[in-house]
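User: Quick sanity check before I run a bigger batch. Here is a single chain. Can you write out its predicted 3D structure?
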Amino acid sequence: MSRPLSYAPPPRPDTGPQDDVDALVSALHDSGLLRAMAGGARAYPQLLTTVLRSVDARTVRSVLELAGGLRDLDPDESARVAGGIRRARTDAARAAAAAPEGPLKLLRRLRDPDTRRGLAAALAALAAIGGSLPRE
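Assistant: Done. Predicted structure follows.
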């Protein structure tokens, strides 16, 4: 008696990663980013030379010092401040489009706790910046 043949066809290659790459390249091409990235890659030596000519040690040190100041920020506090800035932008545009308020109405605004809190925060920020400026 003969043994039965045991033949298993070879497994199909996994084309998932290649499909993902093809989809990415297609999306980049459709959006125009592929052409921009290719141009950037071709112009890389000139871009790098231009950046290195314009950046000196003082500039790098300044950027690092400013980034160090941002390092200590609390994300929740930053989100609250950003929300206030967005609201301030719309409120300021609305106030600029309206008729200017008189001096008495401006003085009445000082009774609003939010106005006083905002003024106190702005004055504290200005005092901190002023304290760090060189004195003559």
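The two ends are 109 Å apart (CA to CA).

User: Great, the batch can go ahead then.
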